[in-house]
Amino acid sequence: MHIVLCSFSYIFVFLVAVEGFELSELGFKKCHLEDEECLLTSFRLALPRFVQGIPEYGVEVMDEMVIDNVKFEITGLKLTLKDARLKGDKDIILDKTKFDTSKKTITVDYHVPLYILTGRYNTDGKILTLPVQGEGDIEIRLQNVVVRSKVNYDLLKKDDKTYIAVKQNSYEFTIGDAHYNLTNLFRGNKELSETTLKFINDNSKDVTLEFGKPVLDVVSKKTFRNVKKFLAKAPLEDITIID
């Protein structure tokens, strides 16, 4: 498993209710925080509506998700994604939820059967031992992406209401399989481009270990921004059963 600090993932996606937007629209029902079965059911009911986006509150559509002008370097490979689109979040399957009030942690396990990333790219550098320089279209298929998200939190009081304040977040992930299609890797040298692409796909697990993390980091950061806007308006008293 690959541990990444700086991701928020989908832990708080469903713990949301703000003025003008009713929980009934999410299909959400109140639960005791440590009732894992109830929380899992509620989260599953809420997910389809949330990923559609709620523009009134600044929540972007999560499927498809726009990833534009993202630059990163992976072991010598400098790659920029332009006007990219990521599909797959609408098919998220939640597997387990746990809200530990004594340790102040929240853990959510989920998996995505298939992520499809399409867009434009340019790159200069190398993948593993192969030099790569080019620009063109890109399509990446990540199959069976399994994620465990964990958040440490504190509780804050404001106007007689209780809010979650995130202290630290991390996630672990594995990717079952991957397939890459990049056109024009060597600026018109079709034979060399096809040879390199075959090498990439023959070694897709090694490549994905390096490439998957930056892509999922971008997804997590976008999710975090969406959720943060809701958490500021979502007191626990309005969304959970507190004894």
TrEMBL record:
<keyword id="KW-0090">Biological rhythms</keyword>
<dbReference type="GO" id="GO:0005615">
    <property type="term" value="C:extracellular space"/>
</dbReference>
<protein>
    <submittedName>
        <fullName>Uncharacterized protein</fullName>
    </submittedName>
</protein>
<dbReference type="InterPro" id="IPR038606">
    <property type="entry name" value="To_sf"/>
</dbReference>
<dbReference type="InterPro" id="IPR010562">
    <property type="entry name" value="Haemolymph_juvenile_hormone-bd"/>
</dbReference>
<feature type="signal peptide">
    <location>
        <begin position="1"/>
        <end position="20"/>
    </location>
</feature>
<dbReference type="Pfam" id="PF06585">
    <property type="entry name" value="JHBP"/>
</dbReference>
<dbReference type="GO" id="GO:0007623">
    <property type="term" value="P:circadian rhythm"/>
</dbReference>
<keyword id="KW-0732">Signal</keyword>
<comment type="similarity">
    <text>Belongs to the TO family.</text>
</comment>
